């Protein structure tokens, strides 16, 4: 079950993931968060600054198709990058601060991946309040393919990689019994920029989450941060 702004989020359940992902992206609260991220001034780190930051903190980093669940007493940051059509998914237990991060690359692994992420987060407590942050994916194909209700096999191949993955993650969160409070949804159109020739690129390629509740979005060598509370 998904909540936004403390209120249960509902959508037409057929097809659930398709409708939900676009409805969530249009939610005023989540749009405001996305616009805030876009307005963050870029900061470029030198090699010395990066090395100093790494030495003074404990990091847990996941690669593509990996996940990690971290106790805030053992690390300062969790993160992932080098994502284009992939999605960085963060789920945090509000009660104990335990945080799980995954670098998902295919709809086929979403259900199993979320089950693994939750296995150490909730300890079978379905009433746990969970915060969710999704960053990644971009409009690597026309949104018209994703919004179409009748897609042929050939047109389905043109819908790209980002949309099916994002839709599957949202569908899984909608249909599970746990309480997911979506705080960040920086995906697809929100995470897309265009150059002068009309080519599209993701704005952010990764994220790092400070376990003191600061979400940082990574764009190549640039970084922006935003307090979650």
From TrEMBL:
**A GO cellular-component term linked to this record:** nucleus
> What are the protein's UniProt keywords?
Hydrolase
A GO biological process held by the record: ubiquitin-dependent protein catabolic process
User: GO MF terms on file?
Assistant: protein-N-terminal asparagine amidohydrolase activity
Highest rank taxon of the organism: Eukaryota
One matching Pfam family, short form?
A: N_Asn_amidohyd
- The protein depicted here goes by the name Protein N-terminal asparagine amidohydrolase
